[in-house]
Amino acid sequence: MSQTSAETIYLKDYTPFGWTVEEVHLTFALHPTKTRVKSRIRFVPNPDVPPQEFFLHGENLTLISAAIDGATIPPKITPKGLTADVPVGPFVWESEVEISPETNTALEGLYMSNGMYCTQCEAEGFRKITYYPDRPDVMSTFTVRVEGSEPVLLSNGNKGDAGTGFAEWHDPWPKPAYLFALVAGDLVNHPDNFKTQSGRDVELNIWVRKGDEDKCAFGMQALKASMTWDEEVYGREYDLDIFNIVAVDDFNMGAMENKGLNIFNSSCVLASPETSTDDNFERIEAIIAHEYFHNWTGNRITCRDWFQLCLKEGLTVYRDSQFTSDLRSAPVKRISDVIDLRGRQFREDGGPLAHPVRPESFVEINNFYTATVYEKGAEVIGMLKRLVGDEDYYKALDLYFTRHDGDAATIEDWLNVFEEVTGRNLKRFKRWYSSAGTPRLTVTDKFKDGRYTLTFKQETPPTPGQPQKKPRVIPIAVGLLGPNGDEVQPTTLLEMTKRQQSFSFEGLASKPVASILRDFSAPVVLEHERSNAERAFLLAHDTDPFNKWEAGQALRRASLIASVTTGAAPDTAFLDAVVRVARDDSLDPAFRALVLQPIGQDDLAATLHAQGHTPDPQAIYDASETMAQSLAQELADSLPRLYADTTVDGPFVPDATGAGKRALNGRILYMLTRMDGGAQARAQFKTADNMTLKLAALNALLGQDTGTDEAENFFQLWKGDRLVMDKWFAAQVALAKPEKAADVAEALTAHPLFTPKNPNRFRAVFGALTMNHAGFHHSSGRGYALLADWLIKLDALNPQTTARMCTAFQTFARYDDTRRSLAKAQLTRILSTNDLSRDTTEMVTRILEG
Ligand code: ARG
Ligand code: ZN
C-alpha cells in the first residue's frame, strides 16, 4: 500500500469548499498520449465558510502552466492535487495540463476505447482531467471547446460554434464536475426528436461505431418513452435542446448520466433481435430510463457529498422500477427485483461488506456503488411511499423538486420534505439509512373468538462496526384468506415500530390463512413457520402475485434444505403444487416461468448458514440437480404440449407478452432437454432466428454437459460481434459442471478473443465463474486460485473492476474450514501484491476483517 492510499473519509468531517465556482472554460487539444487541457475558472470566496487553504484535486496530471489573474504562479504539487496562495477576493485560475488517454486502462477520467475518446468522471475521475475542486457540492456552468481531427466532437449542454477540427459546447445548468463528459470519434448517429410538454424541441441522438447503426432503434424508443413517462408521472421535463447517448465498448459500469451526454456501456444500449435476448432488451430499456431520470434526480438536484449517493441512486432506481412496472408487468418486475435483491443485497448485508444505505466512511468511493446503496436505497423509498401513501409521496416529490432544484442536497433535505408534507416524524424511519443489516422478522399467530392476532418480532444481526441494532419502522402489508380461498381481509398496511408488536383482526368466522409481507413491502427476511399445506394453499389462492410466488419459493426452499441436510427426496407437496402452476394456462406465462425458476445456490447457502449449518456447495448443487430432474419427470407428459403452446410465432417483438411466453418456453425446453437427450434443443438451436431462442437452446444443452458442436457453431456465427461473444464466453463457464468450471474458465482466458482490458469480457468469464456457485467454491480451491491470479493481473490495469470482482469472496467465512482457509490464502496473496490499488486494498481488507 502506498502512503497516500490509506486515508479514510468520514461523513462527520464534511466541510463546504471555501469558494464558489462561477464559470468553467475548458479547451481540449486531443492527442492519444499528449492531450492538452486548458482551464479557466472563476473562483469567488464563499462568505459562509471560514477561510481555508486553496486546494485543487489532481491526479496523474502533468502541469504545464498555472496562473492567477493572468500572472504565472508556482503552485505546490501534492500527491492528490495542488495548493496555491490566492487573493482574498474573487480571482481567475488558469492552468494547462497534459494527460495520456491512450494509456489510461483504469477507464476513469479521459480514456480511449477502440480509437474513440470518452470520459467517466463519477465519482472522482475529473481530477484526472484537470486541477479542480472535484466534489459534488461545487457546481458551475461549463463551456467546452474540443479540438481534434475526429468527425464527431461532443460535450455537455447545447451546441456552440463548430468547424473543421473543433466544436464548442455550453451547458447552462450548473453542475458538479462528475457530470462532465467529452466524446470524440468516428461515430454515426441514430437521430430522432422529442417535443416536451411545454413545447421545447429536443434533438435526440444515439452515437455508435459504424456497423452498430441497426442496433439503436430500441434504445431510442426507450428514451422517448422515458421522457414521456417522467413528464406524466413526476411532471419533469427535459431542459436542453439536445440529448446525446454514446455507446462505448470499454466501460466499468452500466452507464453514466452526464448532463445531456449520457455514456453507455455498449451492452446496455445496443439491441437487436438477432443479438440480444429478452432480458437484454428489458435491461436496456431500464438503464436508458435510469440515466434519463437522473437528469432530475441526480443532475438538477445532486448530492452534497458522496455519502449521500443513495439520494440520487436509490431514488433513480426506484423511479426506473416504477417505469418498468408501468410499461411491462408490475408483479413480474417486483418478483424479479426481489430475486435480485436477495441475491446481491441480502448477500452483501449479511457479510463483511455490509454498510448502511448512507455509509459513514469510505476509503475509495467507487467501492460504494453497491446493491445496498442502489437497490436497498430504492427499497427504502418504496417503504416511505407505502407509509405516506401515493398522494403525499407525489406532493413531497413536488416540494423536493421545487425547493432543491440547483442544490447539492442531503438525506436530511429529502426526509424533511416528507415530514413537512405529511406532518410525520421520520426520525425512526431514518434508521433505514444509518443502520446496516437485514432485519429478520418472525411471526406467530393466534385465533380465538373471531379474533386473529399476528405477533411480529424484529431483530437485525450485528454488522461490521454496528454490534447493536435499534428496531426499525417496518411496513407490513397483510391480507387474510378464508378456508375456501376467498380473501376475507384485503391488503392492509401494518406499521411496525417496536421490537415486538401484535396486530389483531376481528369478526372472523374461522381461522384465516395470513398472507404476510405482500408485494414484499419491506426488505426483511420473513421467518414464518408454517405447514407445507398452507404454503401450497397460498400458491393456489393468494390474490397477491408476489406472495403467491413466494409461497412456491418457500415450499421449494424447505424441500431443498431438507435434501441438503437430511438427504430427503424432493417434497411431493412442492412438486404437485408447481406442476399445477406450470400447467395452468390461466396464469401469466411470465409468472409461471418465475415459479419454475430454480432458487440460486448461493441464496440456499445463505439460508443454510443463517440456520446454523455449514453449507456444502457440492451438496447444494446435487440437491438442486435432483430437484430439477424430479420436476422434469413430474411434468414429462406435459412438456411437449407446454413447449408447443409457448412457442411464439411471427417476427420477434421484445415486449412483455412475448418475453413472458419465451421465458416459460425456455424453462420448458430446459426440462425437456433432461428428458429427450437434447433433440428439441438441437432443433431449436438450428432454426432459431433470434438470440433469445438460440441462447436458450445452447444453455439447455450446455446445462446437460453437451452442446459442444452448437457452441462451436455459435462461435463461428458470432465471432465478429463483441456483445454476442460475451454471451458465448459466459455460458460455457456458467453452465460447466462444478468440477470443470475452473478449467473451462482457464481455457477461455487463453482464447484469442479474451482480454482483461475489456471489463465486459473479463466479467463474462469471471463473473460467470463466481456465479457458478459449486464451481467457484469447489473444494480443490482451483476457482479461488484462478480468480485471484487474474484479479492480481487486472488490478494493475483497472482497479475499479478488480475491486468489484473481489466481492465474489465476501461469503468465504460461511463455508467449511478447508474452503475458508483456501479462500483466505488467496485473499492474503492478493493483499500482499506490490502496489495494489487503494480500491482493491480496501475491499480485500474489509472482507478479511469482516
Ligand atoms: N451514476 C451511474 C449510474 O447509476 C453510475 C456510475 C458509477 N461509476 C463509477 N465509476 N463509480 O447510473
Ligand atoms: Zn444511477
TrEMBL record:
<feature type="domain" description="Aminopeptidase N-like N-terminal">
    <location>
        <begin position="97"/>
        <end position="179"/>
    </location>
</feature>
<dbReference type="InterPro" id="IPR042097">
    <property type="entry name" value="Aminopeptidase_N-like_N_sf"/>
</dbReference>
<dbReference type="InterPro" id="IPR024601">
    <property type="entry name" value="Peptidase_M1_pepN_C"/>
</dbReference>
<dbReference type="InterPro" id="IPR001930">
    <property type="entry name" value="Peptidase_M1"/>
</dbReference>
<dbReference type="GO" id="GO:0006508">
    <property type="term" value="P:proteolysis"/>
</dbReference>
<comment type="similarity">
    <text>Belongs to the peptidase M1 family.</text>
</comment>
<dbReference type="InterPro" id="IPR037144">
    <property type="entry name" value="Peptidase_M1_pepN_C_sf"/>
</dbReference>
<dbReference type="InterPro" id="IPR045357">
    <property type="entry name" value="Aminopeptidase_N-like_N"/>
</dbReference>
<dbReference type="InterPro" id="IPR038438">
    <property type="entry name" value="PepN_Ig-like_sf"/>
</dbReference>
<keyword id="KW-0378">Hydrolase</keyword>
<dbReference type="InterPro" id="IPR027268">
    <property type="entry name" value="Peptidase_M4/M1_CTD_sf"/>
</dbReference>
<feature type="domain" description="Peptidase M1 alanyl aminopeptidase C-terminal">
    <location>
        <begin position="533"/>
        <end position="849"/>
    </location>
</feature>
<keyword id="KW-0482">Metalloprotease</keyword>
<keyword id="KW-0479">Metal-binding</keyword>
<dbReference type="Pfam" id="PF01433">
    <property type="entry name" value="Peptidase_M1"/>
</dbReference>
<protein>
    <recommendedName>
        <fullName>Aminopeptidase N</fullName>
        <ecNumber>3.4.11.2</ecNumber>
    </recommendedName>
</protein>
<dbReference type="InterPro" id="IPR014782">
    <property type="entry name" value="Peptidase_M1_dom"/>
</dbReference>
<dbReference type="InterPro" id="IPR012779">
    <property type="entry name" value="Peptidase_M1_pepN"/>
</dbReference>
<feature type="domain" description="Peptidase M1 alanyl aminopeptidase Ig-like fold">
    <location>
        <begin position="437"/>
        <end position="528"/>
    </location>
</feature>
<dbReference type="GO" id="GO:0008237">
    <property type="term" value="F:metallopeptidase activity"/>
</dbReference>
<dbReference type="GO" id="GO:0008270">
    <property type="term" value="F:zinc ion binding"/>
</dbReference>
<keyword id="KW-0645">Protease</keyword>
<dbReference type="Pfam" id="PF17900">
    <property type="entry name" value="Peptidase_M1_N"/>
</dbReference>
<dbReference type="GO" id="GO:0016285">
    <property type="term" value="F:alanyl aminopeptidase activity"/>
</dbReference>
<keyword id="KW-0031">Aminopeptidase</keyword>
<dbReference type="InterPro" id="IPR035414">
    <property type="entry name" value="Peptidase_M1_pepN_Ig-like"/>
</dbReference>
<feature type="domain" description="Peptidase M1 membrane alanine aminopeptidase">
    <location>
        <begin position="219"/>
        <end position="432"/>
    </location>
</feature>
<keyword id="KW-0862">Zinc</keyword>
<dbReference type="Pfam" id="PF11940">
    <property type="entry name" value="DUF3458"/>
</dbReference>
<dbReference type="Pfam" id="PF17432">
    <property type="entry name" value="DUF3458_C"/>
</dbReference>
